[in-house]
Design a protein that fits this description.
324 residues, mainly alpha, Farnesyl Diphosphate Synthase, 18 helices
Amino acid sequence: MVDLKLLLRISSRTFSLGIERLPKQMANAITIAYLLLRVSDYLEDDRQIAPAKKVELLNLWGKVLIGEESAIAFRQKLEFPTELSPDAHVALEVVNLIEALNQLPEISRTMIIQHVHASTMGMAYWVARGPQIEDEHDMDNYMHEVAGRVGYLVTNLFAIYSRSVKSRIDQLLPLARECGLALQTVNVIRGLKKDYERGWIYVPESYCSVVEISRDDLFDPRYEKQALQVVDMLVTKADGHLKSAREYFRVLPPWKHAIRLSCLYPLLFAIRTLAISRKNHQVLLGEAKMSREEVKKIVRDSTIWGWSNAWVDSYITRLEAADF
């Protein structure tokens, strides 16, 4: 049987930091859900797979999730390059992941299948449609499929394993999608150049029209001033989603420190990454990101004080400052 914790760390050290702090059964369910979504991400993002093949494999993967196709048969259709990406490492273990999924309690298994399948079908739709994001509505639709649904999934899994969270589910669910959109908008900003190099630009065409450039002009040095104005629009959008994500965090019970930390780490990382990205031309050239020292400091500080909403609010103000 595959080591799920190790696979989680390989696929995302950032998210593993919070997930591993959760109570054992909750952590196991969320780990499996996260890894299943990484299989979908691999099929959507891998540069070696042609778009038509991606759609075919995503649809087949969807059938595996709902039990209409064999995981073994699906695995046999996957081809991997010599050097494996983190997501490819996860996809290699798809048979073991489905086995782990089937060992979960029915209520958790059903919830995971529902949301991972829906997200996978959403990815298939967008791959088939192509990389044309006309306006903010299109951007939100795409981000909902790949991240907004994850907010619903994680919140429902929290509620399954925690009565305290379940008692607040009506407050949390309306904000859950915004948490996913917040993190994904920051990911879009951070990965602008990398996504462009693989043929995708998630920036709405309408944003570029405001400053009279095309989306391809974003990476032309002649249009750096206008491109940074577009980045500012994305930053403003991310700020709006992050406000809702902060409210989601405040609703979580203060005494559920592990659950709060699993949400707080990615929230604070996103806020700091956004601060670094503001008016920073580096986001157009490569990737603006936190240093390892900043990551360690955020984890250390929030682990000690993250139970306090007042402290978190104060800390966010510091994260947003240039001299953190």
